[in-house]
Amino acid sequence: MASSCESSAGMASSPCGNSNFDSGLEIKTRSVEQTLIPLVSQITTLINHKDKPKKSERTLAAIHRVGQAVSVAVGRFVAVGEAIAAENQELKDEMGQACFEARRAGDAIAQLTDVGSALPSQLDGRVTVFSDRTAMVKAARLLLSSVTKVLVLADRIVIKQIITSRNKVLVTLDHLERVSTFQEFVQIFSQFGNEMVEFAHLTGDRQNDLKDEKKKARMAAARAVLEKCTMMLLTASKTCLRHPDCESARINKDAVFHRMRCALEQVIEIVTEARSCGENRILPASIYNGIKEFKSGVECLRENLYSLSPQSMSSQLEALVERTEDFTDSAYTSHEQRQAILGLCQLARQDTQQLVHAWVEAQSVHAKEATKDMEVAILKTSQSVSDLRRELHKVAVGRASDLLKVHGEQLPLRALKAAGAEGNLEEVAEYSRTLTEQKEQLVETCRLLCHVSGTEPLEITCIHAEETFHVIGPQIISAAQTLALHPSSKIAKENLEVFCEAWESQLCDMALLLREINDVFEGRRGQLKSLHWLSKHLANMKTAKAVKLDAEEQTSMAKLGLELRLLSSDVDTEVEKWEDQEHEIVRQSQSLCRYTTVSSVLKDIPPSLCVYLSLFQLVDEEKTVVMTEMEKLLALCQQLQMGAKTPVQGKAATFQKVTILHLSVFLSLFLLVSALFIRKKRKPITYFCLKSVRFGGR
User: Which long-range contacts link 575-578 to residues 24+ away (Cβ below 8 Å)?
Assistant: First the structure.
């Protein structure tokens, strides 16, 4: 499906008719992509039918319904787009033009699929339609480009909301930094908390919607900083208010505010795709990527002896070897590990030189493909750099595992807490040096893990961990110094505890990161599970009151409505292909499709349908899958019936009703794909179930 959407973007980039509409749009969010998928499917159906101009009345009627459904759905979608334009003057002109083009294209498709314009053939009496293929293609392109433009413009509103929310947080943050009394601080921090929850909602939705995994990882890292810093800001500010003349308390507080502002700025850079002076520092060159690129260049020589020069290959290897100095120059690398890395680097140099020698010889005799000597040299070179990567991975992961075991006991943190509580500045200084050494080890280890992480999202997480240890270490020390100066202060003690908990939390995240890196190395794709966001705050959010839907919510409703119309017509079209139109599965599929907007009629259909499905002769594996999906079907139907009884009053109930309608389409799709599986026996039912879950799983 993703490929279909990508092809639609390519189609959308072509001009249509006399329109000067700029449709060269890059789809960057999953919500826009998923909204376009059913539209692409319907348009593809219409265009493909043009290859067979003569059609039966039944097929013609199905195509007519598809065309009309597209036109009606686009009309409703455009109406919402026009409402959004009216509420957002800065988008009025662009949105108005995109809506005009979309409506024009939808009307054109409806006209081209109009049965009344079809003529019967003199030979067999069948109807011939869509003789103007060029017009259909132009209308399809215009529709895709204009609908995409409407969606992308609506997405700008989401970005604007995030920026506005960030600005509110920054203003309140400035007020918090300047407060001088506890009463004023409590009032402003309450407001700050509400604004942070709103910001969390907006950025969390945006993070999940991003297609680019690297941007998602950066967003997750920034939001993790904000999560941890929120509690730090509370205790650090209270400590500074209680002890206004304490320099270490001020330093502690200033560091928290600075880090929060940096994280807020990073979020805005991601959503607006702005580039800062630190952009190039986000992803330093890793050894893993260097080896991957080097091996790719070496193996390309099998197909093209002139794809690069021998000198460039040698230079590429030397740059790769130079990066291993992060391992060999480390004071924490053992002598044996250092010798093993240096030995493998030397072996890679020797194998590369042999390859270059065989390569030059092959070029001298004008060989068109790799010679036998070259083939052997290619294999040896690839193996030697793979061995180097394996050794570096072993060193980095081994050191990280050892550090986590040592730091798991938290001895320096316990000692700092005890020394601070006793007011012993000398011991605080001594254990601060110990913690600083541990911090440097952890920072360096995160840098080594970044070299071998294997994916860009994991590289970003390693960088986030490195920065976190680098910042929190000194903050723990300043909090301990404050406590030592004021050993009877409960708030100073609480503040130190909060920073120590943040350190321990980052160690836990590092352990999870280590497992994910191992998963990637061993071929099991790791997922970023170590970054979470203010779940305890989000769980306490109140239900929205009955108010007028805003522009963003209207956009969401329009997207769901567009999918409803297109998917319903898709069910109709496919059911037309069933040979036995009186079959019970066909009859009930048509019933569900017909009543996607009347949920109450569904109460008796799923149980009876499950009976019919169970009567088919299936092998054990197929029967297990079908029965599992039937259980899901019954559960969804119960949810549908309960929701259908809920009166639509207010924003929350409206969205619940839309979700109910979405579930009804999912039920229709389930029935359809079950029928297709039984009829065609071409694809396992799990394929169709996974396909339909995209719509039902919302």
Answer: 575/672, 575/675, 576/58, 576/59, 576/61, 576/62, 578/675, 578/679
How many domains does the structure of the chain reveal?
4
Residue 532 domain-assigned?
Answer: no
* Bridge partner residues of 127 (DSSP): 55, 120
CATH number for position 232: 1.20.120.230
Q: Which of 561, 597, 593 is nearest to 73 (CA)?
A: 561
Same domain, 415 and 390: no
Per residue in 130-180, pLDDT (tens digit) is 445 677 778 888 888 888 888 888 888 889 999 999 999 999 999 999 998
**Do 267 and 414 fall into the same domain?**
yes
Q: Are residues 43 and 141 in the same domain?
A: yes
Going by C-alpha positions, the residue among 387, 168, 368 that lies closest to residue 268 is 168
Q: What is the C-alpha to C-alpha distance for residues 96 and 271, in angstroms, rounded to an integer?
A: 24
The C-alpha atoms of residue 466 and residue 407 are separated, in whole angstroms, by 15
User: Measured at the alpha carbon of residue 339, what is the angle toward residues 336 and 343, in degrees to the nearest 5?
Assistant: 140
Domain that holds residue 668: 551-681
- Could you write out the three-class secondary structure of 121-137? CCCCCCEECCCCHHHHH
**pLDDT exceeds cutoff 60 at 542:** no
pTM for the whole structure: 0.66
Predicted pLDDT at 443: 95
- Statement to judge: residues 270 and 419 lie in one domain: yes
pLDDT tens digits along 590-609:
555 544 444 444 444 555 55
| 4 belongs to a structural domain | no
In this structure, are 152 and 188 located in the same domain? no
% of the chain exceeding 70 in pLDDT: 65
